[in-house]
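> call design_seq(struct)
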């Protein structure tokens, strides 16, 4: 609540740092000025909606995550799975008959991370090290960067390190240079950073080569993944056809194919008339004769004219 109120309160004008300020004081001034810009933007947006900063209160991370899981899209996890993950009671009856299941819990966990539910990207894996740490380099980096971390948290630290490495370029572009992150051992040792970064990937499940398996993926997302593959295949075929047509060999083959199809009547001849058009014109010019032939065939077979045959007898061949 205190943090939210500080962000949303009207900004105070702060004086620029004097020449006598130390670097640390100047950094604090920069942070304060940056916060002023955020406060100004948020306050202006709230006022455009007819609200004041003090009109809003805080919402806990757990409540916000549960709300997002339950109503953040039109395809949400079940309420019982959300309540189980949040640690809330569903009441005596539901607690007895609706129990925890891994699939629903995994769906909740994946939804909380925020990928788009209406895209194949919902199935994407988090940044991770693509190979097992056979050299021990990743473990050494974790011990160096998180010296007081208990052993039971090493799995979490590995994913945290992989995420920072994967987003290193983004962080350098968007994070202020006075942040403590840039003073860490990881960013002070460029060689170690680049070596570890080359081991990190963020990919779809089938590209992980068994290193990780995706869980919590609903059936329709699997269909999205399949559709993306089909679209990619069609686009590849289209590119290859265009490249073939643009090549000299393709132009020659196309000309030969047109010549052959023209001989059998599929392509118009020099007069612009195809075999189909020629046949249709002949039927129109000899409609009565054609109808007589149909009658003779029916009489010889001794059968009754079917519905389509009666139509031909009544209307004759159509253009």
């Amino acid at each position: 609540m205190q943090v939210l109120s500080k962000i949303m309160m009207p900004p105070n004008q702060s004086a620029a740092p004097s020449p006598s300020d130390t670097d640390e004081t100047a950094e604090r001034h920069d942070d304060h000025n940056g916060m002023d810009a955020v406060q100004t933007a948020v306050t202006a947006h709230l006022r455009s909606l007819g609200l004041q900063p003090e009109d809003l209160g805080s919402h806990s991370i757990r409540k916000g995550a549960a709300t997002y899981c339950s109503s953040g899209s039109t395809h949400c996890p079940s309420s019982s799975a959300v309540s189980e993950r949040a640690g809330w009671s569903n009441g005596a009856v539901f607690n007895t008959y609706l129990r925890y299941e891994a699939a629903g819990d995994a769906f909740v966990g994946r939804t909380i991370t925020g990928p788009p539910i209406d895209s194949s990207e919902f199935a994407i894996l988090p940044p991770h090290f693509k190979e097992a740490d056979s050299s021990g380099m990743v473990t050494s980096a974790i011990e160096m960067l998180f010296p007081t971390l208990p052993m039971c948290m090493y799995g979490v630290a590995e994913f945290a390190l992989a995420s920072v490495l994967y987003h290193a370029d983004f962080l350098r572009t968007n994070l202020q240079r006075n942040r403590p992150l840039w003073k860490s051992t990881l960013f002070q040792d460029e060689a170690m950073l680049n070596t570890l970064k080359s081991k990190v990937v963020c990919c779809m499940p089938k590209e992980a080569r068994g290193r990780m398996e995706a869980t919590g993926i609903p059936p329709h997302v699997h269909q999205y993944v399949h559709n993306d593959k089909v679209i990619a295949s069609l686009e590849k075929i289209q590119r290859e056809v265009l490249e073939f047509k643009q090549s000299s060999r393709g132009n020659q083959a196309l000309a030969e194919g047109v010549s052959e199809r023209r001989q059998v009547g599929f392509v118009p001849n020099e007069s612009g008339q195809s075999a189909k058009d020629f046949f249709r014109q002949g039927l129109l010019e000899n409609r009565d004769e054609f109808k007589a032939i149909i009658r003779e065939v029916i009489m010889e077979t001794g059968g009754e004219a079917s519905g389509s045959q009666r139509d031909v007898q009544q209307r004759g061949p159509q253009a």
